[in-house]
Fold these 4 entries.
Entry 1:
Amino acid sequence: MAHSNTKDTNGTTQETYPSTNGFKPTIDWTSFANIINGQPRTSSKTYHSTDPSTLEPLWEAPISTSQDVDDAVSAARAAFPSWSLTPVEIRAKLLVHFGKRAFHDNGEALTALLQRETGKPAFVAGIEVANSYNHCTFHENLRLPEERWEDDEKVIVTRYVPMGVVAAIIPWNFPIVLAIGKICAGLLTGNCVIVKPSPFTPYSALKMVEIAQETFPPGVLQVLGGDDQLGPWLVAHPGIQKINFTGSINTGKKIMAECAKTLKRVTLELGGNDVCIVCEDVADVEGTAAQVALGCFFNTGQMCVCTKRVYVAEKIYDQFLAAMVRFTNGLKMGRPGEEGVMVGPVQNEMQFEKVKDFFKDSWENGHKFVAGGPEAREESEKEKGFFLRPAIVDRPPVESRIVQEEQFGPIVPVLSFTSVDEAIAAANDSVMGLGASVWSDNIAKAEAIGLRLEVGMVYVNSFEKPDCHGYMSGHKMSGIGGDSGVLGIKEMCNVQVMHTYKRR
C-alpha cells in the first residue's frame, strides 16, 4: 500500500508515502521515456519537438509501439482491481502528495520545461503549474454522491463506479493542466489512467508522470509518447473503457466514430468560437477593454475558451475599440525568459501557418486592421520563432472566416450591435458553443443575457478563466461531456444500481 502512518517524537500521527514500486526518479530534466507499469521505458525510435520561440530542436522523446500500448493497457488492467478497492480517502491523499511533489517540490523545473516546449511567457506557465496543483487539492475532499430510496420491501442505492482503464489524450496548448484534470478525476474515482501527450509538447507530461511513480502503485498512472499512430491505437484498443480527449472538432469526430466500434465511453472537449458581449452601460470602458483584450490574447490566443469574437454596443463602440487597440499595442511580445513578456509565439509551425492564413484572408478581403497587420510579425523575429503580433480586425463582414471560424491564435474581430437581441442572435449563430463572456454594470442583466447564450460556460464581467470547481463542457459541436467539478468525476464512472430486498 502506498500510504502509511507513523508517529513522531511528540506522538503526532504523520502520513508518509513511500515509493510503491522501488522506482525513485532521479529527475533528469533532459532525458525522457515512457512510463509503463511503474518503470521508464525507452524506445528504438525517437523524435524531437522544437522550441517555438527559437526554432531550436529540443530533446529526444519516445515513439511508442503497438506493443508498448498493449503492455500499458495490460499493466493498467492488472492494477485496476486493487486500485479501485483502495479507499477513496487514500486515493485522494495520494493525489495531493503527488501534486506537492510535482508542482511544489519540482514546480520551478517543471515550469521551465513547460516554457521551453510551449514558448509560454513566465506568468502563463506559472499559472498553469499553480492551477495543476489546485486540481489535486480540489479533488482531496471531492466525493461521489449516492442516491438511496427505500420502502417496506427493498432498498435501492445508485452508485457511481469506476470504468477501468481511461486514456487521456492531451493537446499541445496546455499540456500539464489539461492532463492533470483528467488524471485527478480518473484516479480519484478508482480508474487507471494512460496519458498521451501531444507530439508537439511531450516533455512536461512525460516528466510529470515519471514523478508520479514515487506515489502511485505500478500501472495506475502511465504515459506514452509517440507519433500520429499512437492515438488511433489507444482509441481502438479493446482493453480501454474510456477516451477523454481535448482537441479539435475534426479529430473529435474521428475518435467518436472509432469508439462506436467498441462502444467506448467518450468525453470530447472540442473547439470554440467564443463570444464576448460588451453592453453600453459599462462605465469603466478603458479597464473593461483591457480585460477583454487579455481574454483574446491570453496564451497567444491558443486556448479553446479564448475570446474569438467581440461584440460591443454601438453607443460605446468607438471608445471601446480605441481603448482595446491601445492596450493590445502595449502588450510585449517575446521569448519566455524575457522580462515583461505577455505574448509568446504560436506553439508549432502547423498552427502558425493556419493562423497566418487568417491574416492573409482578412487582408485580401479588404478588412480593416486597427492593430497588427498582414505581416503581424516582429521585424527582429523574422528568422527565429513562430511570432505573430496580436491583431484586431474592425467590423469585418459577419460571413467572413475571421468571424465564422475559430482562429486559435492572436487575431480577433470586433463588431458592433444596436440591441441585446441582435447581439445574442449573432453570438448563437455558430456551430460551436463552448464559452462566452458578458460585460455589464448591471449583473442581473448580464446573467439574463448569459442564460440565452447557447454555450456550456458563461463568464460575467470576466474573460473566460476555467476553474477546477466548475464543470467545463460545450454545447453543439464543442463537445460531449466535460471535465472538472463534481460532474467531471461522474464522467469517469459507470452507474450501478443495487436493489436489496429485505428478508422477511
Entry 2:
Amino acid sequence: MADPIENAKRTAARKAVEDHFNPTARYIGIGSGSTIVFVVEAIKDRNEDLSRILFVPTGYQSRQVIVKA
C-alpha cells in the first residue's frame, strides 16, 4: 500500500513544477527537504532539454538528488 504522505508530496511537487517550472530559465535553485526528490523527478519526467539550465543545490543532499537524476 502506498504511503499517503509520500503520495501527497509527489502530487504537490508535480503541481508546483507544472505551475512554476520555467524551461527557458538559465538557473534553477533546488532547495532541501523531503519533497525535493519529487520535484526533481517531476522536472526530469517533463522530457525537455535541460542541458542549458544550471541547477543550483542548497546543500549536499540536494546536489546528490540532482546528480542521480
Entry 3:
Amino acid sequence: MAWGGARSQSFATFLILCPTSFFLGILFSLFPYDYPLLWTASTPTEANFQSAENHLRFLHASPPIIARILHIVITVGLLGFFIKLYRPSESNMLFDGASLVLYMCGFVVYMANIVKGLRVVSSGKYDVELVEGELGVGNRGTSPGDRNPLGRNDSLKVLSASNTILALVLVGVLVLQAGQWYAERKQIQETEQMEKDNVIAGKGSAATQRTGSGKKKL
C-alpha cells in the first residue's frame, strides 16, 4: 500500500473524484448549448450559434476569481494523484497511472482548445489567429495576425467537440477509479476467504490429530 495506508488512499481518491465530478458538472451545464451544434440531425440555426456564442462570452468575462477557483480545483486533483502514486503499489501504477494520463490529456484539451477558443469567441475575430505565449500550443511557427481557416460557426463547433472530448476523458478517470475500488475489494474478499479456509483446515487437522491420539490410547 502507498504512503499513509488505506486512510490516505481513500482521502486521495476523494481528492481525485471531487474535481473530476466538478468538471463534469460544468460540462453538463454547457451541454444545452453544445447539443444543437453537434448532436441533432437538423442543421443548427443562427439562434443556436448566437446563444452558444453569448454564453461563452459571458463565461470568459467572468471575474478572475472564477478562473482561480477552477485552477485550484485542477491542482487539488493533481495533488490526489501525487499522494496515491507516492511509493505506489501495483494497483496504483495500473489504475492511478492511467487515470493521471487521462487527467493530463484533459488538461491539454482545456489549455489548447477551450481556453484559446474562449479568447477567440470573446474577441469576435474568428478570421484571425490569436497567439499569446503558451496559448499557441500546437501552433508552432504562428504569429499574431495569422489567418485562421475556421469561421465563426466552425469555431463554435470545435469548442463543443472539445467539451465532449473532455467529458469522455473525465468519465474515463471515474471508470478507472471505480475499477480500482472493485479490484481492491475483490482482492480483500479473496484474502479473507483464504484465511477462513486456512482456519477451517487447521481446525480439521487438529480434530483429526486428537481423534488419532484417542484411538492409540484405547
Entry 4:
Amino acid sequence: MRSGSTIKARPNQPSASTQDLTSEDHLAKGIASHESGNFKESTYHLRIAAKANLPTAMLLYALACRHGWGMRPNPGEGVQWLRRAADCASLEIADDEDGKKEGKVTDVQQQKARRAQFALSIYELGVSHMNGWGIEQDKALALRCFEIAGNWGDADAMAEAGFCYTQGAGCKKDLMKAAKWYRMAEAKGMSMVGNSWIYKPKYADDGGDGRKEKPPTPEKKPRDKSRTRTIFGRKKS
C-alpha cells in the first residue's frame, strides 16, 4: 500500500441488512452517523454512496477525505471527489435544462438542490486551491472558483470573492469589486458586520446603490481565510 493512500473506513461488524441498503440509504446513514459523532461509520456509508455516483455523497465523502473524518486525511483524494461531484451535478443540471426544452415537468426544489450542489462543489474546489489542500496552491484559480460558485448563488463563495478582492489574493486589489461581492453575500443572508464601507457611493457599480450608508460598528471581527463548511452547513463564527 502506498503511503499516500487512504485507509478505507468500515464498521466493526457490518450487518447483513447493511448489504441490502440502497445508495440513498447509505447516504442517509452516513449523514445520521456523522450527526451522532460516529465518523468512522459515517465515512463508510458515504464512500459507498459516493461510489454509486450520488453527487451529494461525493461531496460529503470529499470533505471527509480532506478533514480526516473517520479515516486518514487524504486531501488529494478529496479534490478528485470534489471534481466528480461538480461534474455529476453539472450533468444533472443539463438534463434539467433539456427537460424544460422538451416540455417535461420537473421538480423545482430538486432543480434548486442540484444547482446548490454544483455551486458548493465549485466553492470547495476553490477552498482547496486557495489553501493548497490536496492540490497545488493557485489563488487566482481559487478566486475564479469563488466567482463561478457565487454566480450560481453560493453566499460563502460571494464572501470569499469579496475577501480576495479586498486583500489582493489571486488578483489586484479592487474595492469596488469587493464591495459588489460583499453586498451580494449580504443579500443572501450573510452578516457583513464591520463592512459598512461597502455601501459608500464610490464603491457602488453605478456610483450609488440607492441605499443609505450603514453606521459603523464598534467592533470588526477578523474574517477567516477559509470558511470551509462542516458536513451539514457553514461553521458558526
